[in-house]
Amino acid sequence: MADETTTIEQAHQDAPAESPEGKNQEDGSSEAAASEHRVENIGPGRKRIIMTISEGAIAEKLKTAFGELHRDATLPGFRKGRAPRRLLEKKFGGSLRNTIKEQLIADAYSKAVEQENIAVLGEPDAKNIANAQLPESGPMEVSIEVDVTPEFTLPSLKELSVMRPRLELNDARMEAALQNVRTQFAEIKPREGASEKGDIIELHIEATRSPDGAKPGARLRGVAGQTTTVGAVVYPELAEKLIGVSVGDVFAVDGAPAAEGPDAPAAPAHLECKIISVSQRVLPEINDDFVQPLGFNNVDDLKENLSRELQSRLLEEQSHLMEQQVYRYLLANTQMELPEKAVEMHTRQLVQRRAMEMMERGIPMEEISAQIQQMGVQAVQQSALDLKLFFILSKFAEDNDVEINDGMLNSAVDRIAAMNGRRPEKMRQDMEKSGQLAQLALRLRDQLTVRVLLEDITVTDVDEGEFMAKSQAESQVVEGAGPNIHGVAQVSQPAQPAAEENKPHEAAPAGDQEHASEGHNAGESHAT
Questions:
Q1: Apex CA 3: angle with CA 430 and CA 127, to 5°?
Q2: Quick check: helix, strand or coil at residue 96?
Q3: Peptide bond before 150: cis, by omega within 30 degrees of 0?
Q4: Which one of 267, 276, 331, 355 is at 20 to 30 Å from 441 when CA atoms are compared?
Q5: CA–CA separation, 26 vs 35, rounded Å?
Q6: 365, 373, 361, 372: which is closest to 514 by C-alpha?
Q7: Residues 6+ apart with CB under 8 A from 47
Q8: Mind listing the pLDDT tens digit for each residue in 401-460?
Q9: CA distances from 209 to 203, 212, 215, 239, 467 (A)
Q10: Nearest-angstrom CA–CA distance, 196 and 130
């Protein structure tokens, strides 16, 4: 069905925005007479297109196709154009009739989508096409189900006011940035004696009662005082259990699913672990001897570089916090029924977008990987809110003629490449291959859309402390908004200087070696 799928995708990509449900359209032309259609609502954001292809259209298509086949085909013992039709039908008839069927259905589908102004989301559900057969006589009826853009009314922005927090480059943020530099170039060494907070612990799973992927005999790598999750299960006491342990120690820990839903493992979960190794990060001292191989004359030169980088990041963080206030308001004040299958499809795309946003903000790749693993468990819960926000922002972008050009996209890729110490052209290739380039373009469109909306919204400058207090209360407006939802994070924490100290962490396979200094440079510490 590759030909049919391609044709249908091309047809619905060019379809205009959806209008109210339509009835069969006829204009008297031969194209209109070839097929008829009707459209049924079968659920929130989902329609069934029922197409009837006329007997005359089928006969005409068959006549033309077999005429061309007779003219061009060659069979052993016959000159070109002289082979009997019965032999041609015997050899090529099955595949030719199937191709004609797919072409007729694709043409009828394209006509229905265009005439009814159906804005199709994703790929149509074409399972009925495989079972359809060209009839020997009479018309052919076939149906295709599609997800469509839901109908909703954009909220008024007259009641929205946005706080702009004053984020200052203080001593705590500079100290955190310097600490990040030290961490990036830390040396991993075995620790003699009991583990301390932040140490890297290698575990051997002795026994388990959990379908989370941690099987007996597996080796995992965790961080003392941070690791709380193994696979899809949260072990609340694991982080503390990893503090004060030595090689050879054995302990047990109980856990529960990290998220609710059909894919979440059943509680309770249980792990019995043995400590295989304990390693510590030995951080270098920040002095002239350390910074000169990094390209800085002295420590003050490094601090000046970090200061410029942090100032830029704080401005980005300020914009991010303002965006989130707009997102929360839009979600809380827009009524919308989402198509179920579109939510399922978007769940798979959600992880890519979250990774893109973290890359944009210069978060180290190992930290992104840990957060993405954890977020995969929560993605189903977050997807509906994320998709709802996508529809709202798409409509605002269309109403305000917001578009992203190649120059904007290339500049963003260059910036992300610099943050990750990579060549821009290679970064773009990898992002395009993984689908993250399209996600970046969408993210840029959202940011530009919010900037356009903020031109007509009341903005009030507030101190960071006041902003944090008010944001904590206002974030509860969007029920169920998780910390990783696009644009509706409960509260971003720009005031917290510690880069690694208090973050929950997920255990990784022991084969994933940590290279503290790989892929970073001294000017890439992020502000939060």
A1: 95
A2: helix
A3: no
A4: 331
A5: 9
A6: 365
A7: 21, 39, 40, 41, 118, 145, 146, 148
A8: 999 999 999 999 998 898 788 899 999 999 998 888 988 999 899 999 999 999 989 999
A9: 16, 9, 9, 19, 45
A10: 62
Q: What is the pLDDT of residues 135-154, one digit of tens each?
A: 888 999 999 998 888 889 99
pTM above 0.70, yes or no: no
Tokens of 368: 């992104």
Q: What is the pLDDT of residues 197-228, one digit of tens each?
A: 999 999 998 877 765 556 788 888 899 998 87
Alpha helices in 44-84, H assignment, sequence order: 55-72
> In Å, how far are 193, 295, 317 from 362, measured between CA atoms?
35, 20, 12
Closest CA to 360 of 310, 306, 322, 417: 417
- The CA-atom distances, in angstroms, between 462 and each of 166, 402, 470 are 6, 29, 10
> Tokens 């490094």 correspond to what residue?
302
- Gyration radius from the chain CA atoms: 30
Helix/strand/coil for 417: helix
Does the pLDDT value for residue 14 go beyond 60? Answer: no
Q: What is the largest CA-CA distance in the chain?
A: 91
